[in-house]
Amino acid sequence: MSKTAIETVNLVKQYPAVLRNVRNRHPWMAWQVGGLREIFSRKKNFIRALNGVNLKIYRGEVFGLLGPNGAGKTTLIKILCTLVLPDSGEAYVNGYNVIRESSRVLRNLQAVLGDPRGFDWRLSAKQNLEFYATLYGLPRDYAKKRVEELLDLMGLSDRANDMYQRFSTGMARKLQLCRALLLDTPIILFDEPTAGLDPASAVDFRRLLKDKLAKSEGRTIFIATHNMWEAQTICDRVAVINRGEIIACGSPENLKMYISPEKNYVLTIDGYCDALKMKEFMNEASGLCGVKDLRLQADNASVRISIRVDKDFVFSEILDIMVKYGLKIKDVESYEPSLEEVFIALIRGGKQPI
Ligand SMILES: Nc1ncnc2c1ncn2[C@@H]1O[C@H](COP(=O)(O)OP(=O)(O)O)[C@@H](O)[C@H]1O
Ligand SMILES: [Mg+2]
Fold first, then answer.
1. Which one of 11, 116, 281, 282 has the minimum C-beta count within 10 Å?
2. What is the C-alpha radius of gyration for the chain, rounded to an integer number of angstroms?
3. Do residue 28 and residue 159 come from a single domain?
4. Which atom in ligand 1 lies closest to the alpha carbon of residue 13?
């Protein structure tokens, strides 16, 4: 069995721009002569939501797709769950082609899209889930048990018999996740999974994705998000998409290396330090290969040394010289760029070697 859960090859999706313009106006405008002319004109403008997307997502991986608004994230998810057809290129889910083998694709994945749709607001949460369980063909007894288990897992047990219309946005989102978990599909796609959840529920939710669904159950999780912190904490790998193109792909750590091939440390020296010894230390340490910058900052409270080094510099070389001159370290801080800084640099700076 192949190790790849999702693969896209040169995926292109374009939407007619004129229709977008007409749709954005007041509905009756479309029926005016100008609107009709736009709809039927041969000279249509297109907007490329996806422009040659190549991605490989491995089984059991938590993969994040990061991008600003309008980058193409939702379009890619909709293609993978067979809601939208691509214009060219190929996409495979567990080896099944999304166009030619769509029913098999749907047996291998579940998608949790942006707004919770498809629930009947007059039925209770439990009845809604039981309805979907029947639709998915689950045996009655198993379905009842599974629905209760899932409501409990998402902390909705005590509201199970409330009508759906009484549910808040966050609760509706949790119910959506319960629906996605009714079938044990090996792949789950999420579009902005924690949007609308309170901070505590968002933390539980991320833990559920990473620890239970991915680690314990070995499922592949694909998340489209613009929440950098979320991507950094739960994703094994992330791809950055901008204007329909993947501009970088790798582990969060590797992406940080792209924009900052250096590391920064600040060492706080413990207790009294001899000025002469410190000077000798500074001379020797600044001569080390890989040290880009070395500065001493001293005030009444503390003596601190800030060091900028190459990313593969072996830090123990500095420690050896400190020991040699009898300097003791009280505290070490290292500074790394956040994924947010990486993201902004990538969006502004263009494509990186993938
Ligand atoms: N149904 C549609 N009709 C026309 N244009 C669309 C449609 N869906 C998305 N688009 C356009 O495609 C681009 C990508 O949209 P989308 O995939 O929703 O981005 P994201 O989810 O990253 O915010 C945007 O410019 C958006 O306006
Ligand atoms: Mg979107």
1. 282
2. 27
3. yes
4. 12
d(CA 312, CA 163): 58
Q: In what order do the strands lie in the sheet with 62-66?
A: 109-112, 187-191, 220-225, 62-66, 237-242, 245-250
Ligand 1: residue of 15, 44, 191 to mutate (most ligand atoms within 8 A of CB) is 15
Q: Can you give the pTM of this predicted structure?
A: 0.78
C-alpha distance across the termini of the chain, in Å: 26
pLDDT single digits (tens) 62-107: 999 999 889 999 999 999 999 999 999 999 999 999 999 999 999 9
Does 18 have pLDDT greater than 80? no
Of the bound ligands, which one is closest to the alpha carbon of residue 243?
A: 1
Query: If you measure from the C-alpha of residue 137 to the centroid of ligand 2, how many angstroms do you get, rounded to a whole number?
Result: 30
Q: Measured between alpha carbons, how far is residue 114 from residues 100, 177, 209, 352 in Å? A: 26, 11, 17, 29
Atom number in ligand 1 closest to CA 67 = 22
Look at the block and give the residue holding tokens 């990313």. Answer: 311
Question: At residue 338, what are phi and psi to the nearest 5 degrees?
Answer: -85, 165
Atom number in ligand 1 closest to CA 69: 23
Token pair recorded at residue 249: 């792909």
Q: What is the pLDDT of residue 37?
A: 63
CATH number at residue 60: 3.40.50.300
Please tell me the predicted confidence (pLDDT) of residue 203: 86
Q: How far is CA 191 from CA 73, 105, 338, 352, in A?
A: 8, 18, 22, 25
Question: Residue 164: left if φ>0, alpha if ψ -120 to 50, beta else—which one?
Answer: alpha
φ and ψ of 171, to 5 deg: -65, -40
CATH classification at residue 282? 3.30.70.1340
Residues with CB under 6 A from ligand 1: 15, 20, 47, 49, 67, 69-75
Give the residue, out of 8, 14, 20, with the most ligand 1 atoms within 8 A of its beta carbon, to mutate for a pocket test: 20
Beta-sheet pairing, 262-269 with 88-93: unpaired
Distance of alpha carbon 51 from alpha carbon 14, whole angstroms: 8
